[in-house]
Amino acid sequence: MKIKIARHAAKSLEKIPAETRMAILTSIKGLETEPFPPPPKGKRLVGMKPATYRLRVGDYRVFYREMESDLVILSVINRKDLETEIKKMK
Questions:
Q1: How many C-beta atoms surround the C-beta of residue 87 within 10 A?
Q2: Could you list the residue range(s) of the whole structural domain that residue 74 is in?
Q3: What is the CATH number of the domain that holds 84?
Q4: Quick one: pLDDT band at residue 31, thresholds 50, 70, 90?
Q5: pLDDT tens, 41-84?
Q6: 10 Å Cβ neighbour count for 37?
Q7: What is the pLDDT of residue 47?
């Protein structure tokens, strides 16, 4: 699958420290071969239409959706901001 990063996610990535950003980008790259990793690293979010998935990378969460034959990275956030971001996505 091809991975696309939304503008909002790209801006969020720019604000993350370089070492952590590289770990996140490596995990995102891994989605090409395994788009839906098993828990606890990956998880489908309940109650989200269309289906939205979460990828856990340290203290950060990567939210993404499958659109046609692509995976679109919607946002990358610190877990402390998780509740606020999920409410925005619904």
A1: 8
A2: 2-89
A3: 3.30.2310.20
A4: very high
A5: 999 999 888 999 999 999 999 999 999 889 999 999 999 988 88
A6: 16
A7: 86
Q: Which two tokens stand for residue 61?
A: 């969460």
Tokens of 45: 């979010």
Closest CA to 78 of 28, 21, 34, 5: 21
What separation, in Å, do the N-terminal and C-terminal C-alpha atoms of the chain show? 25
User: Domains in the chain: how many in total?
Assistant: 1
Helix (H) or strand (E) holding 30: helix 18-30
Strand pairing of 60-67 and 52-57?
antiparallel
The encoded tokens of residue 31 equal 């989605």
Question: What is the model's pTM?
Answer: 0.89
What is the DSSP pairing of strand 2-5 with strand 70-78? parallel
- With CA atoms as reference, report the closest residue to 52 among 62, 40, 60: 62
Long-range contacts of 49-54 (CB under 8 A, 24+ apart): 52/89
